Structure formats: C-alpha cells, structure tokens
Amino acid sequence: MMSSIPAARTPPSTRPQWWRDAVVYQIYPRSFADSNGDGEGDIPGITARLPYLRRLGVDAVWLNPCYVSPMRDGGYDVADYRRIDPRFGTDADFDAFLAGCHDVGIRVIMDIVPNHCSAEHAWFVEAMREAPGTGAWRRFHCVRGSGGSGQQPPNDWQSVFSGPAWSQLPDERGEPSGWWYLHLFDPSQPDLNWECEEVRTEFDDVIRHWFARGVDGLRIDVATGMVKAAGYPDPDGSWPHPHWDQDGVHDIFRRWRAIADEFDDRVLVAEAILGFPDRLARYLRPDELHMAFNFSSLTSPWDAASFADAIRWPLEHNDAIGAPTTWLLENHDIARAVSRYSGAPLRQPLENITILDHVPARELTQAELARGAARARAALLMSLALPGSFYLYAGGELGLPEVLDIPDARRDDPVWHRTGGATVGRDGCRVPLPWTADGSTYGFNSGSVSWLPQPAGWGRWSVEAQEADPDSFLNFTRRAIAARRSLDLVGGIGDLMASGGVLTFTRRSAEAGVLRCTVNMSEQPVDIDDDTIVAMSAPAEQVFGEPVRLLPDACIWTYA
Ligand code: GLC
C-alpha cells in the first residue's frame, strides 16, 4: 500500500525561476537563535543553524527586518535602510550569512519597509527640526488639521494599530501647531510621501544596494498602502480605499521590477492584504511583482469549503496571467496555526484592528492542543501539494502553539500598548524557539534570558525532543518537504472539491503520474478509493484498512 517516493531531482533553488515553487522559511531574527547570550536572536545565530535549515530541505529564507531600528515595531520602523542593526550583528556577519546560505544552495529574501520609516530616520529627524509643513516635510504627509485652528485630525483615517492615523506636531514653542503627520501604524512609524520623487529615487537605490550585495529577493511590507488618494478624502465604502490599493502603487512596482530585472533571477514578494483575488492578481502582472502572499489561506478557518475558496480564487486569477500563487499558514502577525485550528474560542479583536489577530481566549486543553497539532500537520501537507511557493514560519515545523501567558510587563507589540491591552497582539507567535529539551532558554542561547519569556515546558516542542521521534512534527515536516521535492509536482490543480467537509484536489507529478490530496476536515472518517499512499499527516496506525480509511483532521497524498 505504501509506495516509495522517487529520488529528488535538482533542488528548485538552483533552477531558473526558482521562486515559482520554492519552500521559503521565514525567520524572525530576534527569536531564532541567539549567539551572544544577550537575549535577542542574531545573524551569527542563524548562520550557525544553516545545517538545520539544509536538513529541513528549504530552498530559501526570508528574514524579517534586521536593519538599524529603535524596534518600536519589531524592526518595521527602519532608521537606516542600508545597515544591519548592531543587535543582530555586524554588516560583515550579514555578508558571511549570505555567503553561507549561497554555499548550501539556500536563497535569501530580505524585508523592505517602504510605506513608512522610523521617527529616528535622518529624514524625520531633519523634518522635526523644521516648521511643520515646510522643507524636509515634503518627504512625509504633513497636513493642516480640520476645525478652525486645525486642532482636529485632517480626516478620519484610522491607524492599523488603532486610534487616529494622525499625530499633531508641536510648533516652535511646543504648543499644538494645527499640523499633523500621517502614520498608518504606530506614531513612531511616519508614512513616507511617495509623491515626492526623492523618496522614489532613494528606494531605487536601496533596492539596488541589496541586490548588488547578493540578496535574492525582497518582501515588500504594506505593499498596498504606499500611495494615498489626492486630498486625503475620508473613506466612503468604495474601492480602492483612499490609502489601500490605489492605482499609483503599480507605477512604483513597475519601476522596481525594472530594477530587479537588471540582476539575475531576483524576486519581489508583496505583502498585499486584499480581500479581492482579482485586485491581488494586478500586483502580479508580468511587469510587476513575482509573488504576493495569499492571505485568504492564512486566515481560513478549519473548514473545507472555506479552504477551497481560499485555493480556487487566487489560482484562477493568477493562472490567467501566468503568475504563481504563494501560500502560507502562519507568519509573525497571526496566532500559531496549532492554536487557531484547535477549536478553542478565539478572542475578538477590536473592530478597527485589521492586523491579523486570532488569538485563543484561554489556554488550550490537551485535547484541543492535539487536535490543533493534527490539523496544522494536515494543512501543511495540503499546502505543500498546491501549485506555487510555500512560506513556512520558523517554529511551524515544530508545531509550536501560540504562547498566551506572557506577562503584561514583558509584552512588546505596539498593538498591545496602543489598545491598552484590549487586543493582545502578536507577541505570542514571536517567542524564541526551543532548540533543547532543557536549559534556562531551551537552547535559544547559552545565557539565561530571552527578550520574550518562554513558557514552562517549552522544551517539549524543542528540536532536540523531536529529533529522535520519527512521528514528531519536525520529522513529519522534513518528510513532507522531501516528498514534495521528489515528486516534482507540475501544472495546476485538478478536480478541486469540498464535499461533506472533505477537501480534495489533484496534481500531476513529473515523476509519478497523478497525485490526489485529500484533507478530512469533517468529524467522520472517510474512505479513499486510491490504494497507494504517498504521504500522510497522521501516524501510520491512524490510517488503516482496504480501502484506506482517513480519520478526521488528517491529510493524505495518494496516486489517483
Ligand atoms: C506588516 C508587518 C507587520 C508590521 C506592519 C507595519 O504588516 O508584517 O509586522 O507591524 O507591516 O510595518
């Protein structure tokens, strides 16, 4: 019944257009591995773990921002776009990391944060020395407030992190000036004005800097937000929104694509959170970006019909223009998949918080944890069968749950602070990784502190604890990635169906005929007619019989 999987062919990372079907591992540098014991992960820590990444079988890594930053929003507040923050190591450490990755065939994608900079960026510091609305303010959105003396914000745009998206500037005597600057996120992240040509040429240069240095790709933060509607109108319910998905962003990305094309095989990946797959596909037109995350798969609940929609619509729109679809189940902005799929009740985020926040309202029971882990495995196996690239967030391969018991005083996310704790924020998915079963930081470093506290028992999910168990989440993930590579899946999907809570689709393997992926999201076992199991997410003893009986919360690949 079990069949052997063909031997792996050329790793995708060495093929032309490697990004079309790559498995990309997302590293939150602060939380991955700390080489110097200061409590924060760093670049030498990542370099030291390259053998681990190789064994996992990933084609590329994406690093969250590690540029000079006061870290008011985890580095998404950049003070210098060309330099590595000393907390993460030196610029030489970065170059050594890049060379080390390339030596073992792993590509490197960096984050670029063009919508806003840090209030400590030289441009904002310069602007703050000038009278509001003059000179250096041209690079930002500095606007007169409404009301007689400008004491009200210019419009009712809301920050993604809650509250008004505008902060009032002081005049030279320190009194309210009636001038306001725009920040779609935290006040420490002033939005850049992309109508200013100097902003455009500066980022042209930043992009060339990183590509010339050897970086293989850039993930574009807040890609839909960079252009604001003229006159800063209030939203009226129509689309595009005055500060999301404006047509003008596409001119910027055409310009960036031309820059990427000056180099070999470099890629641009959009963080474009859009509810409409037709609008998302516009970012992937042949002269624009290479990839854009499909956030509908990230936010889908454990429901076959919902996942089928999250798969069908982006594929339909992207296929029509020859663009790949980019899948993910986790990232640094959303609660861990194990916890989201556990069936436990989720907290309700504040109404105007659009940042992803699906955090369980209470600690999970053992049964919920087991259910969430089974479902997260199944979702992973399903995602690896889809056409396109897959982004695996560090810790996802260990089946880490969301950490819920971070003491208030240790929380770092500006979402937590700006909402006065009403929205718990994203710290729970950013807790430093456990490498060893014991030790004061579970092998994260050789010291005794980690920037976010790790919960008691964190070693249960450690790499060390999982290494020896063939059925562990980690070993399952390794097998699943290896199977995907060996099967060399090609073409689109066939026969996508969600029926009775069971999701199925087929792919063609260049090596081995037609493969069927079946995910049981129902409460009942299902019988599978195909008799050859290629890969499965549940332990072997749970998948049994002739015909094969697949239990709830499991996924299986069979030859159709
Ligand atoms: C993106 C990032 C998120 C950050 C925000 C502002 O959504 O993924 O972490 O807070 O942009 O830069």
Instruction: Let me know the average pLDDT.
Output: 94
- The CATH class of the largest domain: Alpha Beta
Going across the biggest sheet, name each strand in turn.
Answer: 11-10-9-5-2-1-13-12
| Model regions low in confidence, pLDDT < 50 over at least 5 residues | none
The helix fraction, in percent, is 25-40%
Biggest β-sheet: count, sense, barrel? Answer: 8 strands, parallel
DSSP summary: helix tally: 15
Q: What is the structural class?
A: alpha/beta
The number of strands is 20
Which structural traits does this protein have?
560 residues; alpha/beta; TIM Barrel; Oligo-1,6-glucosidase, domain 2; Immunoglobulin-like; 3 domains; 8-stranded parallel β-sheet; 5-stranded antiparallel β-sheet; globular; binds alpha-D-glucopyranose
